[in-house]
Amino acid sequence: MSAANNSGTVSEVGASQGRRDVSASDAVGRQARRDEVARPPSGARSEQSETAGPASGVPSEQSGTLSASGAGAPLLRISHLRKAYGSNVVLRDLSLDVPDHQCVALIGASGSGKSTLLRCINLLEVVEDGQIFLQGKDITDPRVDGDTVRTTVGIVFQSFNLFPHMTVLDNITLAPRRVHGVSRRAAEADGMAMLERVGLADKASAKPDELSGGQQQRVAIARALVGKPLLMLFDEVTSALDPELVGEVLDLLAELREDGMTMLVATHEMSFARQVADRVVFLADGEVAEQGSPQQIFEGPTDPRTQRFLRRILDGGRL
Ligand SMILES: Nc1ncnc2c1ncn2[C@@H]1O[C@H](COP(=O)(O)OP(=O)(O)OP(=O)(O)O)[C@@H](O)[C@H]1O
Ligand SMILES: [Mg+2]
Fold first, then answer.
1. Where in the sequence is the domain holding 172, given as residue range(s)?
2. Please, which residues have CB within 8 angstroms of residue 118's CB and are 6 or more apart in sequence?
């Protein structure tokens, strides 16, 4: 599937989980990929049992309810989330489900809290109230280890944040090797597989500044994927890119969706939300103002706030 036609930039990583076997996702097909992305990280399980008990953020393979494909619970459930910065209440009562293997586009005006929400999910922010369930486990439980959750939930930001003095392959293998103790050989095999996945195997020895912005963002995505996250969060990953480079990154996101990756994508790229996403969620006033299929949201929005937002987008020629 081809993604949209406009712009963006990506960038950063989140989870790296180097202890598991890795294989290139495009080599195994969609169903295999689904199985693969559903597999919980091996390291997380022991950490859960040793330090955090059953409320730990990462699921146990032995619990049937935690299989990404079982039990009927969405991979991610956000329940009555509240997040404020001082007196600025950004998320006031936000509830949202992201089912397995769906691509959910998060849209809304600038300042509506899209990035804040993604950071809360990745436990980069402390929430005031509400809960976030990952595979049925409440990851807002204070006993949950954030690093463990971040091995399962990858995040990519607008800025690439690649180390300029390191090769592309070293950037990708750094976390598996340094954080997760994977051997260089195994990490490089995984890293090369992932570079092939994003179409950049020939750039493994290049330095980031020898790559285009779109290529750098694809490297950043590969860096997040090498940890085999169950869930990927993308925060305006094309917004720092020159317009002509946006398409290649959005196409990669569309391919990941085809592979069965579960994705929550904050974006101003309405064409992506419309053409690629399974569901579109519109944020306003600190809550989900409206959500539905792309067709529902773009062709028949019912909330006046959605209607106003889309009218502005239309008037700006961005839809
Ligand atoms: N670290 C922070 N400290 C204080 N306020 C913050 C912080 N991060 C975000 N905010 C505030 O939270 C609100 C939501 O910001 P956020 O970046 O989540 O919006 P957004 O929907 O991602 O916007 P954009 O579309 O421009 O990226 C804004 O009012 C912002 O000023
Ligand atoms: Mg943002």
1. 3-47+99-126+139-315
2. 106, 155, 233, 235, 264, 266
Q: What is the pLDDT of residues 19-64, one digit of tens each?
A: 222 233 333 333 343 333 333 333 332 322 222 222 233 333 333 2
In a domain, 64, yes or no: no
Determine whether the shortest distance from the Cβ of 113 to ligand 1 is under 6 A.
Answer: yes
pLDDT in tens, 126-178: 999 999 999 999 999 999 999 899 989 999 999 999 999 999 999 999 999 99
Number of domains in the chain: 1
pTM, to two decimals: 0.81
Residue 255 lies in a domain: yes
Q: How far does residue 267's CA lie from ligand 1's centre (Å)? A: 14
Residues with CB under 5 A from ligand 2 (ion): 114-115
